[in-house]
């Protein structure tokens, strides 16, 4: 579960949007003793470093969108699996209740 969360956060930060920059800026916000200027500078540096890392992993521009789509489909697959298990459990419990009612 933590692994999935980590992947999600990684994808979120590596997206080519200002959201990633905002996340990086908010991470630095905790160091209140620094001035806003250095905070913003550091957050931008962090963001650029992350972008470089992401781009090193995928040197194609549109790969990010493809990986996002892949990530979404993976989440859907996992969700479907989970819901299947949930349906089996729910139907199983109702079946047990029926047997319990019959034996009473």
Characterise the protein shown here.
The protein has 104 residues and is mostly helical. It is 84% helix and 0% strand. It is built from four helices and no strands. α2 (18-28) crosses α3 (36-57). The protein is elongated and about 70 Å long. The mean pLDDT is 62.
Keywords summarizing the entry:
104 residues; 4 helices; 84% helix; single chain; mainly alpha
How far apart are the termini?
Answer: 41 Å
| Major β-sheet profile | none
Average pLDDT taken over every residue: 62
Q: How many β-strand runs?
A: 0
Radius of gyration, Cα only, in angstroms? 22 Å
Low-confidence stretches: none
Number of helices: 4
**Would you list the SSEs in sequence order as H and E?**
HHHH
Percent helix: over 70%
Give the DSSP E fraction (strand runs of 2 or more residues).
Answer: under 5%
Describe the global form: elongated
User: Structural class of the helix and strand makeup?
Assistant: mainly alpha
What order do the helices and strands come in, and which of them pair?
Elements: H1 2-14, H2 18-28, H3 36-57, H4 63-103
């Amino acid at each position: 579960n933590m692994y999935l969360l980590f992947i999600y956060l990684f994808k979120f930060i590596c997206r080519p949007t200002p959201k990633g920059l905002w996340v990086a800026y908010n991470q630095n916000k905790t160091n209140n003793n620094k001035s806003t200027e250095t905070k913003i500078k550091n957050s931008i540096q962090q963001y650029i470093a992350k972008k470089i890392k992401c781009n090193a992993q995928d040197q194609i521009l549109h790969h990010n969108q493809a990986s996002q789509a892949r990530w979404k489909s993976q989440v859907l697959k996992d969700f479907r699996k989970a819901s299947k298990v949930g349906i089996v459990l729910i139907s199983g419990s109702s079946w047990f209740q029926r047997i319990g009612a019959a034996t009473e």
